[in-house]
Amino acid sequence: MKHSVTYLFVLMLVLACKPTVPSEYIQPDEMEEILYDYHIAQAMSRTSVGSEADLNKQVYLDAVLKKYGISEADFDSSLVYYYSRADRFKEIYSHVSERLNDEAKALGAGVGELNRYSQYSTTGDTANIWTNTSEVLLIPRPTQNRFDFTVKVDTTFHLGDSFMFQFMSEFLYQTGSKDAVVCVLTKYEGDSIIQTANHVSIAGLSQIRVPANKDKKLKEMSGYIYLSDGGDLSDTRKLMYVSQMQLIRFHDKSINKTDGTNKKDSVQTDSLQRIDNPGRAVPDTLRRRIVGRRPGGTPLRPDPGVGPHRVAPRPVELKKVQ
């Protein structure tokens, strides 16, 4: 009984400490449902192109808001509220992203690039070495429009390694052009720096590949994702949600891990070596055959009708060199 009372007391404290959303704004659970339906609708609108696509996006948004009895003004004001509470909004979007992935799998979506590399550990010739947060919420406002990261370079990094940084993204825009920049900076021996950057303007999978440097070892690696305001300074709905971030490292197996030289596969052949035998007879050598001696030591010769004696050659020994 005493333990039950203690548990209830702790639970009440936790609930009391958790901040609540004012009633004039959309509550977290309902906001999650609205955002889930919104992104489903946006995916459907992508089948159109040009001005028709923009029109369909607005039509689908109106249909979603009508479903929940929410006006666009209420939706936007609630987003502004959540903008200032990024941690709570990120939690909502995390649930939305998970549900969208589950929905895609239920509809028979195949194993994509993200799922294919998520099975790799932080070691091995192909490894997912990402240890930072896997999701971030970006808004084109100072202090909220950029995510910076660094990667620790240690002895598991080898000469000739190449990399691929990838993630999933969703946009929630009312006006303005979607434009995010993802950049990876690599610093090598001799303080040479290579910058690899891409622009991201559509939702879905984004990838940026860093080619291998086979001449110099990597010393430092860092990068960022920056969401631009697109030249639109109005305080309208603009949001980018990045999730499932991964950094894949690929070892080049053709480069020696210790001295950095290219491996040359030696060709091993089964060579045969002839073993010299000074005492062997020369093959096919003719010798005169002595059949006996006369008194006094004079050798007897064979009869003229008897041909010369051919000495059989001794076999040549061959040894296989291992």
Walk me through the topology.
Elements: H1 2-17, H2 28-45, H3 50-68, H4 72-83, H5 86-106, H6 113-118, E1 126-128, E2 136-138, E3 146-151, E4 162-173, E5 180-188, E6 192-200, E7 204-210, E8 218-227, E9 238-250, E10 272-274, E11 286-287, E12 292-293, E13 299-300, E14 309-310, E15 318-320
Antiparallel strand pairs: 1-9, 2-9, 3-8, 4-7, 4-9, 5-6, 5-8, 10-15, 11-14, 12-13
Helix pairs in contact: 2-3, 2-5
Give the structure's gist in a few sentences.
The chain is an alpha+beta fold. Among the domains are: 85 residues, no CATH class; 138 residues, Jelly Rolls, CATH 2.60.120.
Distance between the termini: 81 Å
Number of β-strand runs? 15
Helix content: 25-40%
Order of helices and strands: HHHHHHEEEEEEEEEEEEEEE
The averaged pLDDT comes out at: 76
